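Appendix B, record 7
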Amino acid sequence: PDDAIKTIKDSLTKYDSTDNRMYLASLLVERKRYDSAREQYDYILRSKPNSTSAAIGLANVELAQGNKQHALEIIDNGLHYSPDDKDLTKLKESIIYQINNPNAPK
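Structure tokens (predicted):
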């Protein structure tokens, strides 16, 4: 199972691409390796701060670890670059609901 992660990491040494980093981050999330996934999303957002996919991925990592407020900050930053993005807006509404209704199902 970790062969895919190794293959992607090896390919990044030869050709660093956002798509490969996004794929690597998603594999890491699947394996609950949140710190490593966060590093990949952070890396993408440093070079492409307007990447809505990376912002959503990073926010979901934060949510998986119970960091709702930080997830909201990430989404707000994404909305700064893409104020009309429906996915960012929908996730923001969901996070606000979770914050205001801590006992509600996710």
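Remarks on this record: The first helix runs from residue 3 to 14. The mean pLDDT is 90.
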